[in-house]
Amino acid sequence: MHGSPLRVALVAHDARKDALIEWAGGHLDALEQCEISATGTTGGRLKGAYPKLNITALKSGPLGGDQQIGALIAEDRMDAIIFFIDPLSPMPHDVDVKALTRLAVVYDLPLAHSPRAADVLMWGLRHG
Ligand SMILES: O=C(CO)COP(=O)(O)O
């Protein structure tokens, strides 16, 4: 871990929000050390469940929240993305989701789309 707090984005599609809340509950020690940015509804759920986390809730994903996180990536203000996508439903804002994940790859940020991948990501961030 480097000196300043890790900047982590937490995002989940509706069908995966419960999974993200559960996952976060298993990583509170690490997440309490992070500056978290989240899309609107995801951020509201996380704040309700874990009031001690430092969460900035942006706009809801379909209303531009994914693009706001993309902008943070482009400005080198993000260290990792945990984005539990719903792989079984079409999304009206699929292009925004794609743009966000594309930028994560462009900037070579760690990106996890599922709980076990997120476990590995957090372990890697904490242990360098
Ligand atoms: O749609 C999302 C990501 O694409 C998530 O947005 P919400 O957290 O506002 O539901």
UniProtKB/TrEMBL annotation:
Instruction: Name the Gene Ontology molecular function terms of this record.
Output: methylglyoxal synthase activity
Xref: SMART domains: MGS (SM00851)
- Single Gene Ontology BP term? methylglyoxal biosynthetic process
An example GO CC term for this entry is:
cytosol
Q: Which UniProt keywords apply?
A: Lyase
Catalytic positions are 66
Which Gene3D superfamilies is this protein grouped with? Methylglyoxal synthase-like domain
- The chain positions of domain MGS-like read 1-128
Residues binding substrate are: 13, 17, 39-42, 60-61, 93
Lineage, top-rank taxon, reads Bacteria
Q: State which Enzyme Commission number(s) the record gives.
A: 4.2.3.3
Does Lyase count among this protein's keywords?
yes
Q: Which reaction does it catalyse?
A: dihydroxyacetone phosphate = methylglyoxal + phosphate
Q: Which NCBIfam families match?
A: PRK05234.1
Q: Return the similarity comment.
A: Belongs to the methylglyoxal synthase family.
Q: What does this protein do?
A: Catalyzes the formation of methylglyoxal from dihydroxyacetone phosphate.
Q: Which PANTHER family match?
A: METHYLGLYOXAL SYNTHASE
Q: What is this protein called?
A: Methylglyoxal synthase
Q: What is the lineage of its organism?
A: Bacteria, Pseudomonadati, Pseudomonadota, Alphaproteobacteria, Rhodobacterales
